[in-house]
Recover the amino acids of this structure.
C-alpha cells in the first residue's frame, strides 16, 4: 500500500510527509512541481529512505499522474499542491487559475480513471483527500459566528476563488461519479518550513535581519492560527475516519489580530535572541498600505471534526509560536538558502545536474 501526496515539498505537505513517515505510515509517492514554494531541503531527512519516492512533476500532467497511479497503486491521494499566497494571486491570478482549478481538474480526471478500474473493495477503500482553506467562506465581521461547514462560499481573492472552484470540482466528482472524496478547510497555519513571504515567518526573518516589519492597514485583521503539525494530524484523522463526501473544518480556536501576532513574535525574539542594541524588535514595525480587498476576519468552528472524529489540536498558540520562533532561530541555513534562492539548486545537486525544469518527470527514491 502507498499513498500519493501532491505538493509534498511545500510548507504543509512536507510537514505532513515527514510526520506520516515518522509515525510509520505507508510509503509516500510525493509529486511536486517545485515552484518557488517547493523546497526539497524540507525533506532532506528522508534521504535514503525507501519509503519516500519523490517525483518532480505537475499534478496537471495527466499522462504523468496516470503513469504514477498505475505504477504505485495508491490507496489514497492527498492533494496539497496549490498556489497559496494571496498577495501573489492579486499580482498574478493566472497561475492560481491554472494550478488550483485546471490542475485539480486534471488530477481528478486521472484519479477518476484509476479509481474506476479498481475492484469493488479497493474502490470502496480508496480516498481522495482535498486540502483546502477557510478563505473560501469569505470574511466575517467582528460579531459573526465562526465558519461552519454549511457557510456559503463567498471567496474574495483570486486565491480563495480558485480554491473554492477546486472544492466545487472535488464535490462534483463525488456526486457525479461517486469518487470517495474528503475535503478539509483549515485556518491559517504556522510552523517549521513556512516560506517567509507569509506573515509569521516574514516577521521572524525580517526582524533578525534588521528590516521593517510591514503591517498591512491597521493590523486589526483577525486570523485563526493552527500549528502545522496539528493540521497534519487532522488530515490523518479525516483520511482514517472521515465520512466520504463530507467536509471538515479544521482550526484551533485561536483568533488573533495581526498586530498581536507581530508583537508576540517580537517579544519571543527579544527573549530568545535580543537585538545587539538591546532595543525591542517591535521598534521595527511599520504600517504599510493595506492589501486590496483584504478579508477582515477568519474564524473556524471546529466542532464537527472534534465531535465526529475526536480530533483536537495538541498545541496551544503559546506553545506553537514559541516552537516556531525557535525553529527559525535554530535553522539559519534553511532561511539563508530560501532567501538567496540556493534552495532551488538542491534539485540539481541531488540529481547531479539532471533536468530540473519543465514537466519532465523524474522519479527516484530519496
Ligand atoms: P505552499 O505554497 O507552501 O506549497 C505548495 C506546494 O505545491 C509547493 O511545494 C509547490 O511546488 C507545489 N505545487 C504547486 N503547483 C503544483 C502543481 N501543479 N503540481 C504539483 N505540485 C505543485 O502551500 P502550503 O501553505 O503548504 O499549502 C498547502 C495546501 O494547503 C494548499 O492547497 C493551500 O491552499 C492549503 N492551505 C494552506 C493554509 C496555510 O495557512 N498555508 C491553510 C489552509 C489550507
Ligand atoms: P498571510 O500570511 O499572507 O495569510 P492569508 O492572507 O492567507 O491570511 O497573511 C496573514 C495576515 O497578515 C493577513 O491579514 C495579511 C497580513 N500581513 C501583513 O500585515 N503583513 C505582511 O507582510 C503579510 C505577508 C501579511
Amino acid at each position: 500500500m502507498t499513498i500519493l501526496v501532491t505538493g509534498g515539498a511545500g510548507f504543509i505537505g512536507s510537514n505532513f510527509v515527514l510526520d506520516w513517515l515518522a509515525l510509520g505510515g505507508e510509503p509516500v509517492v510525493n509529486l511536486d512541481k517545485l515552484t518557488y514554494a517547493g523546497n526539497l531541503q524540507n525533506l532532506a531527512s528522508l534521504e535514503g529512505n525507501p519509503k519516500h519516492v519523490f517525483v518532480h512533476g505537475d499534478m496537471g500532467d495527466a499522462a504523468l499522474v496516470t503513469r504514477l497511479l498505475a505504477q504505485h497503486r495508491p490507496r489514497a491521494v492527498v492533494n496539497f499542491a496549490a498556489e497559496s499566497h494571496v498577495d501573489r494571486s492579486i499580482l498574478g491570478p493566472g497561475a492560481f487559475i491554472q494550478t488550483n482549478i485546471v490542475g485539480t481538474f486534471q488530477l481528478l480526471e486521472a484519479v477518476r480513471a484509476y479509481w474506476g478500474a479498481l475492484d469493488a473493495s479497493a474502490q470502496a477503500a480508496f480516498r481522495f483527500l482535498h486540502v483546502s482553506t477557510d478563505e473560501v467562506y469569505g470574511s466575517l465581521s467582528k460579531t459573526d459566528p465562526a465558519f461552519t461547514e454549511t457557510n456559503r462560499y463567498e471567496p474574495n481573492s483570486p486565491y480563495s476563488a480558485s480554491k473554492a472552484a477546486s472544492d466545487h470540482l472535488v464535490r462534483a466528482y463525488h456526486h457525479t461519479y461517486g469518487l470517495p472524496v474528503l475535503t478539509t478547510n483549515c485556518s491559517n497555519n504556522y510552523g517549521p518550513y513556512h516560506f517567509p513571504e507569509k506573515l509569521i515567518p516574514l516577521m521572524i526573518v525580517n526582524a533578525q535581519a534588521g528590516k521593517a516589519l510591514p503591517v498591512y492597514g491597521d493590523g486589526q485583521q483577525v486570523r485563526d492560527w493552527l500549528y502545522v503539525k496539528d493540521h497534519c494530524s487532522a488530515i490523518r484523522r479525516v483520511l482514517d475516519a472521515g465520512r466520504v463526501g463530507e467536509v471538515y473544518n479544521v482550526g484551533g480556536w485561536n483568533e488573533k489580530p495581526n498586530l498581536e501576532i507581530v508583537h508576540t513574535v517580537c517579544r519571543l525574539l527579544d527573549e530568545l535572541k535580543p537585538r545587539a542594541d538591546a532595543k525591542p524588535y517591535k521598534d521595527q514595525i511599520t504600517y504599510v498600505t493595506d492589501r486590496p480587498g483584504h478579508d477582515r476576519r477568519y474564524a473556524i468552528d471546529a466542532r464537527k471534526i472534534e465531535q465526529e472524529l475526536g480530533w483536537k489540536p495538541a498545541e496551544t498558540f503559546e506553545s506553537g509560536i514559541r516552537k516556531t520562533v525557535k525553529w527559525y532561530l535554530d535553522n539559519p541555513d534553511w532561511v539563508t538558502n530560501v532567501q538567496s534562492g540556493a534552495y532551488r539548486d538542491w534539485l540539481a545537486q541531488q540529481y547531479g545536474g539532471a533536468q530540473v525544469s519543465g514537466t519532465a518527470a523524474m522519479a527516484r527514491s530519496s
Remarks:
- The domain at 3-190+226-250 is CATH 3.40.50.720 (Rossmann fold).
- DSSP finds 13 helices and 13 strands in the chain.
- Residues 353-366 have pLDDT under 50 and may be disordered.
- Residues 272 and 326 are 8 Å apart (CA to CA).
